[in-house]
């Protein structure tokens, strides 16, 4: 764990990339916000690295919380090979958290990260104080195994129009969605130095395989999740439909649910001005 005593960094664009080694894997991560208290660990989405977090959400949480974003095994600047199962990804996330010396964390997760976070929380309930699941669904959830098809279709659309794939995957293609998509992509470019390594095609395909396997697996007992849980999504999520967020909400005791109107998979990014304060409020209890 870092012992730096310099000024507290609360801008994700300025947080330097660090590494920690556990076993044969060196994990890349960034941390910001005041040290002490329970850290908030960010679990990122499919084909994403450290540069894919919306700074408007990270910075809002880092104002009063110790925030840690990381690349799991085989992703970005972390070494090793991406596992082909959500369960193994959860094991690696636990290894990373343990390597930093934390015994209790809050988790902020999005999409694939939310699947990993669910598995980790079920396997290690003592490790998780509060859980945020956004744009995600449960094991065995309806049509999760179709994520690959939707992803490849949108990647093709993006290639043909020379756009960022996230503009298609995360946002509606109406006027509001296109405007939100452009603003989001621009925010991701605010960090100009010390950028992360892009996720390889092989790693991306392995992640898709893990999602498909997760989607076709036997549903697990989510009532075992005792950590207070906040669930959020957009009402027109084509990748992980909002009905799956409602399913999570029904099955996780006492969970809170926010569904944003006229928005897709990236609903929390489109409505960052509303979502960030809700996340901060949830984590502050």
UniProtKB/TrEMBL annotation:
Keyword Hydrolase: yes
InterPro entries: AB_hydrolase, AB_hydrolase_1, AB_hydrolase_fold
Domain named AB hydrolase-1: residues: 40-269
Keyword Transcription recorded: no
Gene3D superfamilies attached to this UniProt entry: alpha/beta hydrolase
Pfam family, one: Abhydrolase_1
Top-rank taxon: Bacteria
GO molecular function: hydrolase activity
Alphabetical UniProt keywords: Hydrolase
Protein name: Alpha/beta hydrolase
Source organism (scientific name): Rhodococcus globerulus
Classification lineage: Bacteria, Bacillati, Actinomycetota, Actinomycetes, Mycobacteriales
